[in-house]
Amino acid sequence: MKALTSCLFLFTVFLQSCTTSQKGQPDMLIKVSRNDTTINASSFIKEIKVIKLETNSDLLISQIGKVQYIKGQLYLFDLPGNCLFIFNNDGSLYKKIKRIGGGPGEYVRLMDFYISKYKSFILDFAKQTIIQYDKDFNFIEQNKYSTFGSKFVFHNGNYWIYNEPSGRKNDYQYIVVDENGKTINQFLPRNFTQHTYNWAGVNSFYENNGVVYLSPRYNDTIYSINQNKLKTEYIIDFGKDKLPKGDNINSYDITQTDFDFLVKDNFYITNKYVIFDLNVKGNREYCIYDRNSKNAICSTINNDLIKDFRFFPRWGNDNYLIEEVSSELVLNGFKSSFQKEIIEDLKPDDNPIIIVYEIKD
Fold it and tell me: I want to staple 351 with a disulfide (CB 3.0 to 4.6 A). Which of 55, 108, 144, 223 is the partner?
């Protein structure tokens, strides 16, 4: 009888364990159900900051590749200019980094940057090198890697690098490289070598409060880095609109109106929300998932915080989403949306206006 009781007890514990695991699984699941009701930006955004960037003959920005808002400063790199700018909160230039060449601390093609508490980093795509500086951009060292890395973060003393497709059989989307340039791990192998469409750069990393999240382009799973391994944080369920299993997303042009499926574009993980955008037959929609209530709403965004203006952030970090709008577009399409001090003396070829959205906690 004691043996039977023990067996029943263990079996009950086992069932409870399985039930807990199964109940816990949906916490990671974000079910996408598109809604016809427009989402007001004020429902999840705390406040906005509009920054008019300084412009002069030596300070012209052509095409922004990335923006980060860190401790009241904007870090911004210009693709054609091949340089990194740092702007103060009022839009005045703090520093410009342009060190093109083959010497120590110099690069050929700047493709990404990363700012930590004590160090700054630049990824040189042409030389497959990450250059390390101190916080004032004094050169420290540089480290080689052997893939087509285009995006990266520095986490727990290692470089996590997102790789562009190489066409090789063993082609991993992410590699981990130590400060000696040694590859110590690889994650998420590509299942297809063909890559016809979708080369545009959506983000593949997001960092908030020291936690680094990653997700391959147009993928439905978001991971975090946990002790140099991947931990699944969220799985996006597109239901009947999900890309068929086994299909190669890069054989579709997702910007076309005849693309019938939903895929995640950029993603942002703030203190309270998981936010990601979708291209729905040429229209931009967003999913706002409350990390506390586990509820998601997906629809178009009405930017009720800026009169008659769009909502189109493309970058973010921590609790901020960041949007850029050209001065020409402001003057031609959104002149009534901005205050006098922004519009005053603005010229069509001036540097872009940056909008920083602080998300509610």
Answer: 55
Handedness of CA 357, 289, 238, 223 (dihedral sign): positive
What is the rounded end-to-end Cα distance, in angstroms, of the chain?
55
Cβ burial, residue 321 (10 Å; 0-12/13-18/19+): buried
Q: Is 6 helix (H, G, I), strand (E, B) or coil?
A: helix
CB atoms near residue 87 (< 10 Å): 24
pLDDT tens digits for the chain (361 residues)?
Answer: 444 444 444 334 333 444 333 333 556 999 999 988 999 999 999 999 999 999 999 899 999 999 999 999 999 999 999 999 999 999 999 999 999 999 999 999 999 999 999 999 999 999 999 999 999 999 999 999 999 999 999 999 999 999 999 888 889 999 999 999 999 999 999 988 777 888 767 899 999 999 999 999 999 999 999 988 999 999 999 999 999 999 999 899 998 899 999 999 999 999 999 999 999 988 999 999 999 999 999 999 999 999 999 999 999 999 999 999 999 999 999 999 999 999 999 999 999 999 999 999 9
Give 117-161 as a DSSP string: SSEEEEEETTTTEEEEEETT--EEEEEE-SS-EEEEEEETTEEEE
